[in-house]
Write a structure and sequence with these properties.
The chain has helices at residues 9-14, 29-35, 47-55, 71-78, 99-105, 114-117, 128-156; strands spanning 19-21, 39-41, 43-44, 61-64, 88-91. By secondary structure, it is mainly alpha-helical. The relative contact order is 0.09.
Length: 157
Amino acid sequence: VMDDTVCDLRLAAALGASFALSPIDPTGFLEECERYGLLGIPSGFSSVECWNLHLRGAAIIKLFHASTISPAILSATLDVSPLAAMNILPSGGVDPGNVEAWWTAGAPVVGMGSNLVGKDIAVFPESAEFEAASLQWKTSGRAIAQSVFQRANARAA
């Protein structure tokens, strides 16, 4: 969701959405999500931005672009009281190889996008890139994703 699409949250809720995610903190986003019963997940980067989103009522805050920092920085941030009250969702650079480090750092959830579901969602169908991504998904991507889901389920148990 961006500033110019906050108005679409009503339709998203009517179509059954339960949450809305943004790479920024769009104007009116949290308020509109609350109005329509959606879990609004805005993005912040610095501890100040994340804390301000927390104070405004964000139950989960997307840390975006997580690839530019490390799980150690997230852990150090959450070690500072009262910042430990924040639920941070790192996204943008989280992948099956580093997901455990993010969970250990204190992230209750993570975002992986195409690092989890395959690169074929980001390219045009019937292109050479799509065919290569599709083959990668079939040969190894699906098993990797299943492994991540199994590890996530084990953590939740």
